[in-house]
Write a structure and sequence with these properties.
The structure holds 2 protein chains of 2 kinds. Chain A has helices at residues 16-25, 68-78, 88-95, 152-160, 214-223, and strands spanning 4-9, 29-34, 45-48, 83-86, 102-104, 112-120, 136-143, 147-149, 164-169, 185-189, 195-198. Chain A has one domain (4-223): Class I glutamine amidotransferase (GATase) domain (Rossmann fold), CATH 3.40.50.880. Chain A is an alpha/beta fold. The relative contact order of chain A is 0.17. Chain B is of the alpha+beta class. Chain B has one domain: Phosphoribosylformylglycinamidine synthase subunit PurS (Mth169, Chain: A, 2-Layer Sandwich), CATH 3.30.1280. Helix content of chain B is 35%, strand content 28%. Chain B has 2 helices and 3 strands; from the N terminus they run E-H-E-H-E. Chain B has helices at 16-27, 51-66, and strands at residues 2-9, 40-45, 72-79. Chain B has a 3-stranded antiparallel β-sheet with strand order 2-1-3, with helices on one face. The longest helix of chain B has 16 residues, at 51-66. The chains are: A alpha/beta, B alpha+beta. At the A-B interface, loops of A face helix 1 of B.
Chain lengths: 224, 80
């Protein structure tokens, strides 16, 4: 049977169609759901895609996290359902408390939009199960508020539980400061490893014409 | 009643906007600037029986939405 994915859409979301396209290529049936819905259809994965929900007013993700559909997403996640937040989706999931930490304005105050290398730190989770630890992937980033912050205690927790998914690095895998993130963190998961968030866009790196296909093996994790 | 909420990044959390403004002030020749922090001010007009009730309400608003307490601190001023 085909796997089913749901992609959320808020006012200001702009990556829902790219995400839909990428997931369809992975064999998913995909449904885009408006934020005013209060229930989720039965599915194997919920993706909170990138964009600028509510114009990033107040803080990126801070208003979207109270949208009606988010209650359903929270229950879905608490029951062990897989949730992936990409870019603005990552911001929404941290604001909702489904992922630890927070995302601040980039240290250089720029909107950073470019191809970026990231290093796989942990793969003992569904999302990165098709990637190798230490593997360097090339995936685009496009954000103004991607500067991941977590306090020292939280950071220790992340390390202890293998919750750091990817870090920014150079092409050889050496640490690279992109936006000021604590320890170059580009993505994390929750303790139970069913909620994932990252700033880079795997859905934008799925065909050679896009400059990289490394996003495929990331998304493949959910398809298996 | 009117409430003023000031939201700032916590001490110890680097404030990139404050830092940029600090550098700009220095390069404009302003001397003795030790630190610059940039936050936001939210002004709320609300119904409340008294100051205490207003404070209670705005505190809840701040914790729920106006500040992200993972990275931000806030203070509330009730103006009658």
């Amino acid at each position: 049977m085909k796997k089913r994915a749901v992609v959320l859409r808020f006012p200001g979301t702009n990556c829902e169609f790219d995400t839909e396209y990428a997931l369809k290529k992975q064999g998913f049936d995909v449904e885009i759901i408006w934020h005013k819905e209060e229930t989720l259809p039965e599915c194997d994965l919920v993706v909170v895609p990138g964009g600028f929900s509510y114009g990033d007013y107040l803080r990126a993700g801070s208003i979207a996290r109270f949208a009606p559909i988010m209650k359903a997403v929270e229950s879905y996640a608490n029951e062990g359902g897989y949730v992936l937040g990409i870019c603005n989706g990552f911001q929404i999931l941290t604001e909702a408390g489904l992922l630890p930490g927070a995302l601040k304005r980039n240290n250089n105050l720029h909107f950073i939009s470019k191809m970026q290398h990231i290093k796989v730190i942990n793969n003992d989770n569904k999302f990165l199960s098709k990637c190798e630890v230490g593997e360097v992937l090339e995936v685009p980033v496009a954000h103004a508020d991607g500067n991941y912050y977590i306090d020292d205690e939280g950071l220790e927790e992340l390390k202890k539980n293998n919750q750091i998914l990817v870090r920014y690095c150079d092409k050889d895998g050496y640490p690279m400061i992109l936006n000021g993130s604590v320890e170059q963190i580009a993505g994390v998961c929750n303790k139970t490893k069913n909620v994932f968030g990252l700033m880079p866009h795997p859905e934008r790196a799925i065909e050679l014409i896009l400059g990289s296909t490394d996003g495929v093996k990331m998304l493949e994790g959910f398809a298996s | 009643m009117k409430a003023i909420v000031n939201v700032f990044l916590k001490e110890g959390v680097l404030d990139p906007q404050g830092k940029a403004a600090h550098h700009a002030l220095e390069s404009l020749g302003f001397k003795g600037v030790n630190d610059v922090r940039i936050g936001k001010q939210i002004v709320i007009d609300l119904d409340a029986k008294n100051k205490e009730e207003a404070l209670q309400k705005v505190k809840e608003m701040s914790e729920t939405l106006l500040a992200n307490t993972v990275i931000e601190d806030y203070n509330i001023e009730i103006v009658e």
